[in-house]
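Hi there, hope your week has been kind to you so far. Do you reckon you could talk me through the fold, stretch by stretch? Thanks so much in advance, here it is.
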Amino acid sequence: MLIVCPLIAGCGFLPPLGSRRLKEDVAAVHSRAPEKWTALPKIEPTAATGWLDDFNSVTLRQLVDRTIAANPDLKAAGARVTQARAETVQAGAALWPSISGAFSASRSQSPGDQRFSGLGTINNRFRLPLNVSWEVDLWGRVADERSAARARRFAAEEDFHASRLSLAATAVQTAITLAEAQSLQSLAEQNVRTRRVQLGILEKQMERGLEPDRAALDVSLGRADLARAEATVQQRKAAADQSRRTLEVLMGGYPAGTERGLTSLPVLKRGIPAGLPSELLLRRPDLRAAERRLESALRLESSAKKAFLPSIRLTGDYGRTSQQTDDLLVPEAAFWSIASNVTQSFFQGGRIIATVQQTRARYEEQLQTYTSSALTAFREVETALAADAFLRAQADALSRSAAEAERAESLALGQYEKGLTEVLTLLDTRQRAFDARSALIAVQAQRLRNRTDLHLALGGEF
């Protein structure tokens, strides 16, 4: 006690061990960020950074809102946040005195004198104590554990935000995939109707008996293409049905396959969102969660090191005791006691050292995980930025291809009706036009999904 008292007067709480190391390690991760995105084109200063507004669709926002409100996985993430908050309270409870009360009653009989009545004396004892126990957190060990729990709580909250953002992005991409499938299905059904009309013309030509061999070949080719077009319709229907049921489950509903989703693909109304790589580390909730876990690991390491230091516990009792319940409240029935003890561990078979090594390794694990997450975030942003430029150029090329294919189809139809070209040329040009339009729809949808990936990678809010 003589050794500990000067320390109490001179030191107070010891600061968390390794705080400077945490700042240096986090700064080292931040230093990996480039000054600007390598794939980012020149952006006007007034470029907007909102992301659901980029799609200019009220229906899409409503789908996201429904998903956020009803998705069971997000509700589970919210429950984990509640658990983490409760754990923080539990960890901090050790900083406060523990106070408990009790009431006890006992009756005993002492042996009597056999020379007389032989009856013993009956004694009653009633106690109404109030017990107080408190561990003096002289070195800040308990405070470190509370700080670690608080950091885990913040990490759980950031995980919830990350889950919310990821869920919204998944809902957007699923809705876009459903709109793509429905657009392709509509295009395939239109193709079937066109080929049926063409097949009817070919069959009439065969019935007239003009060039029977050629007419029979043309009819067979037309029927084959019609069957292939009908099979494509069923394929597109299956894709739409799958996306529809996936979206329904995301929104917390039964996968009945009745969700209509978007009537058409949204049209982007904004450019690429602005932002610097250094801002990414502050905006992405998953990176903020990783940093909070790093802090929690550091606090646990600090707490483990302080287990080498002595612990001080104060205990006290105050209450009433008497032989009659009526006398419990009189001043003479009061009793109290106070005590303190200092405990110093000398040998535990290496348990404390092993715990320190374990927590230090856990901190290193979290540091490398944080570094890896940051590099992955940079890769996701750079990839999505580059893909946006590639997909935009691809969509422009496919748009020109579709326009030329439609023009070629029109020319081939006119020449075929005049007998200037074979049916194979007509069927081939129609297939080219259909493929070009299908490819254009697919790339437009992929660009929308990539824009969603970009906003998700940037940690954008909605």
User: Anything to note?
Assistant: The chain has a mean pLDDT of 81. The longest strand covers residues 121-136. The beta strands are 98-101, 104-110, 121-136, 311-322, 334-343. The radius of gyration is 38 Å.
